[in-house]
Amino acid sequence: MVSVFQALSIIDQNTEALSPMLLPLSEVNGCVLAEDVKAPINLPPFRQSAMDGYAFQHGAKGNLKLIGESKAGDFKEFEVSISDCLRIFTGARVPDQVDTVVMQEHVEKTSDGIRILKMPEKGTNVRLIGEQIKKDEVVLEKGTQINAAIVGFLAGLGISKVLVIRKPKISLIVTGNELQEPGTLLEPGSVYESNQYMLEAALQSENVELIHSEHVLDDKESTYQAIQKALEADLVMISGGISVGDYDFVKESLEKNGVEEKFYKVNQKPGKPLWYGKKDEKQVFALPGNPASSLTCFLIYVTAAIRKMNGTATIDINLKKGRMKGNYKNVFNKALFLQVKERGGELEVYPKQASSMLVSFTQSNAFLFVPDDVKEIRDGDEVMYIPFKL
Ligand SMILES: Nc1nc2c(c(=O)[nH]1)N[C@H]1C(S)=C(S)[C@@H](COP(=O)(O)OP(=O)(O)OC[C@H]3O[C@@H](n4cnc5c(N)ncnc54)[C@H](O)[C@@H]3O)O[C@H]1N2
Ligand code: MOO
């Protein structure tokens, strides 16, 4: 049996960021850049009007004669004298011979052009070449996590592919004869399957690719074969069948598949019988089947490995300081991950807590972390907590 911190450290030692891959923009949201990105063009690439209005040479007095038009997408030159103007629209190129744009609300139309009612300063409403970004400038650094704004920014620079750390491929297996599909009539002795739905949903918040997900019965051969197939992924998650019962076949099936145990059992509650191992570079987490144990182990350990693999974070328990609301006794001699509601750093323990119960998770947004040597927490005590987002 290892401690929570030993378990995290073993996972850390056994986890590396995955190799970089050139991917199209449509697939990189959430990924981490594996190299600096340089601007291939100036932004804007040409002088652009920031308003719908009229372009002219600054210094003109009196009425201006309208001699042409520049709309978005046009690239035309004009012979513009000091007493001429051009109709222009937002985003359109500002032709070379004009330097200022007056917005149309600040002019009055005349029979052949306009009269400026409010004279703008020279250069007003003209976006200059490279004003946002200069060509060859490093615009994003290696290690940046791509979000929607970055995807849009890259597209705006004309970049269609970027080198990113590839997403871990994940396989999921849930085990158990007693598991029945939601939406069917519950048979005596059965329970509805929840962990496959839950873990698939939780994976949607991580930057991963789920390549395989299945339910196997408590049977040696099926478990062995399912694990063999699942090992195509970078990381395998198995729920259930990892304890010491006569029908718990996961541990022996992992060993038979050549997965080497790195630790088994963590001195914690929930989630004591967590098993972690490796086959070459592939990682395997066998999560205890009790739903709250599975989800706790996923949130504390599996996400840590996933985020180191995809380059989005280092492995760290990220403990925050908060204040206890109410009293709690730790009678277990184990580290506890209690599901709590955190509001403004104040932590309220949900009353119904057990490995088998998900109800407490549905009302919580953080774990109160109770070290194994802390036996009692009183109202107002400073405590440690780990926020989570599901
Ligand atoms: N003699 C001992 N028995 C147990 C120990 C122990 O140390 N000695 N540890 C207990 C702890 S702690 C846990 S946690 C569980 C873990 O057991 P398994 O990982 O083998 O899980 P199962 O037996 O398959 O299932 C446990 C429980 O969870 C329900 N379950 C499982 N999978 C699902 C699912 N996909 N959806 C919904 N519910 C699921 C299952 O029906 C059981 O009720 O072992 C203790 N026993
Ligand atoms: O450790 Mo188990 O996950 O408490 O029931």
Automatic annotation (TrEMBL):
Coiled coil: none annotated. The keyword Amino-acid biosynthesis does not apply. GO terms for biological process: Mo-molybdopterin cofactor biosynthetic process. Its EC number is 2.10.1.1. Pathway: Cofactor biosynthesis; molybdopterin biosynthesis. It catalyses: adenylyl-molybdopterin + molybdate = Mo-molybdopterin + AMP + H(+). GO terms for molecular function: metal ion binding; molybdopterin molybdotransferase activity. Catalyzes the insertion of molybdate into adenylated molybdopterin with the concomitant release of AMP. This is Molybdopterin molybdenumtransferase. It comes from Algoriphagus halophilus. The lineage of its organism: Bacteria, Pseudomonadati, Bacteroidota, Cytophagia, Cytophagales.
